[in-house]
Amino acid sequence: MNIEFDMYQTLALAVLVLLLGSFLKKHIHFLEKFCIPAPVIGGLLFAILTCIGYSTGLADFTFDDTLREVCMVFFFTSVGFQANLKVLKSGGKSMIIFLFLVITLIVSQNLLAVGLSKLLQLNPLVGMCTGSIPMVGGHGTAGAFGPVLEDFNIQGATTICTAAATFGLIMGGPIGKRLIEKRNLMDTVATEDDSLLIEDEEKHKRHTNMYAAAVFQLILAIGLGTIFSWLLTKTGLTFPIYIGAMLAAALIRNIAEYTNFTTIHMGEINDLGGISLSLFLGMAMITLKLWELASLALPLVILLAAQTLLIGVFTYFVIFRIMGHDYDAAVLAAGTCGFGMGATPNAMANMQALCDRFVPSVKAYLLIPLVGSLFADFINSLVITFFINII
Questions:
Q1: Which of 136, 129, 131, 156 is nearest to 306 (CA)?
Q2: What DSSP character marks residue 28?
Q3: pTM
Q4: Mean pLDDT of the region 86-97
Q5: Is residue 178 scored above 90 in pLDDT?
């Protein structure tokens, strides 16, 4: 039996799995503890249902995922608006160093994925499905780049990326506790670092009458982005569909910051981006074909185990040492584990658990959200695009 969903029904189904995931997350401590996104919870259950239907021959589900791409572009455009160069410029030496360390992590994840996939005699693009796409990128980037890799005949790329992102959310636990206790770092707790700039909270306040203006700003950035994307195709390289919109949003944001010609409604844009991401993830999850993972089960386990080892070694020996080998550096290491294998909410959860046990780290609470939310996704998309094109 073939069950078809048009684009409106697919969108409605995505909302249903989102609501189901929210309900389960609220009532199951494990899901809450590891900050598993609600669309991933409900969507994975539905994907298991479709897998059973396919495997038994009872039902074959098909979806019109036109609106998935629309929601994806809206989300990544909102990410582009986060790229405020004034914050980077005024953030002090610590932010600049930490940003370069995160870039190093992104490149290392992809080098490891490509190199190990060659040793396993796999297509390097399959390896990319376990690199920074799902690790630093999380489910959002996984859902965006999966179809790009499928265009290169990597069957099941979206499913592999999404499975790897889910693995990363669960495995990206903190290592800060070991560092703090082993090295007696409570004696190194620093005072507040005033050199770090927190974005003006006024810019992130929500006003109900400004959501329309925020939608218009997103749409204008997407429209301008189509021109950027067209120009990028002239290079002969392959770029994800949202990259032009992301660059346009970053350009608009920074022109506004330096000229004050308009107000960018960041609070509202963040909310709209969050809604778009939830809908995008919901549609991405319900369209997963889990049966495509079967032939890659063992190589996938090896590749993901290697990524887990890399994040542990990198945070323990690189992030911790270069960021000052003190208490703040240990909390930063724990936070990097979170967004280096999952998402910024995971990083915040890791740091919260650590700081609840010991003391808060002002430096870590400033650096992780700024770099993880403002710059990591933006830079990651550019690095991934570079790797895909050279492969």
A1: 131
A2: -
A3: 0.78
A4: 77
A5: no
